[in-house]
């Protein structure tokens, strides 16, 4: 049989169908057969040619949805905002993207897989940390935050804290302990002269904590 001349179209179709099914039925309730049956004639072999598992599809969806609506790119040239305000807007925008929030909530149990966890942490440091660093450097230049001596190290640590240490499936804790981590992060940032976590972000974070802990309790 001839090989698919447009593999990217197949990948896109798999992701589109999977997103629709995950949001409609839920991740656990959607099977690979469900996905294949909605691919308009594509075979199970076509699915496995591009993805080894449903977990890989979910991770690919999370990445795709982030980069299609990359908040760092959206705020980069936004006039009227200083560097600190851009960082805050990036964080707030992640709470407002409902589909991305739902997909990210589905990925919570996957942190128990060592390979997926390792890939997640590596992506955090290779992708997210440099994006934060760019805005931190801008904030230092415009004076909206203090002149941090080690902006690269700070950005790496901040990305790790909010995406790893603040994830109870990776660093287990109770809801009360997670709230303590939130307020500790705020105090540390304020002392450093980087008041990123304003009241709106705190309230959005508390709501997110409630959702995450409810998801974990259902597992």
TrEMBL record:
Protein's UniProt keywords contain Oxidoreductase: no
Domain of life: Bacteria
Record-annotated HTH tetR-type domain positions: 8-69
Keyword Transcription regulation found: no
DNA-binding region: 32-51
Pfam families found in the cross-reference section: TetR_N
UniProt keyword list: DNA-binding
Single GO molecular function: DNA binding
Protein name in UniProt: TetR/AcrR family transcriptional regulator
Organism: Extibacter muris
């Amino acid at each position: 049989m001839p090989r698919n001349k447009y593999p990217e179209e197949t990948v896109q179709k798999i992701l589109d169908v999977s997103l629709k099914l995950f949001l409609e039925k839920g991740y656990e309730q959607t099977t690979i057969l469900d996905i294949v049956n909605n691919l308009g004639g594509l075979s199970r072999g076509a699915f496995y040619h591009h993805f080894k598992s449903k977990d890989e599809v979910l991770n690919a969806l999370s990445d795709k949805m982030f980069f299609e609506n990359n908040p760092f790119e959206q705020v980069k040239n936004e006039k009227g905002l200083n560097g600190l305000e851009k960082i805050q807007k990036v964080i707030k925008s992640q709470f407002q993207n409902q589909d991305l929030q739902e997909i990210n909530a589905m990925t919570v149990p996957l942190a128990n897989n060592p390979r997926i966890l390792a890939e997640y942490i590596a992506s955090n440091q290779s992708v997210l940390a440099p994006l934060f660093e760019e805005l931190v450097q801008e904030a230092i230049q415009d004076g909206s935050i203090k002149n941090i001596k080690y902006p690269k190290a700070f950005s790496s640590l901040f990305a790790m804290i909010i995406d790893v240490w603040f994830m109870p499936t990776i660093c287990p804790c109770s809801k009360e302990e997670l709230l303590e981590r939130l307020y500790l992060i705020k105090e540390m940032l304020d002392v450093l002269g980087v008041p990123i976590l304003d009241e709106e972000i705190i309230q959005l974070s508390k709501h997110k904590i409630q959702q995450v802990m409810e998801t974990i309790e259902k597992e």
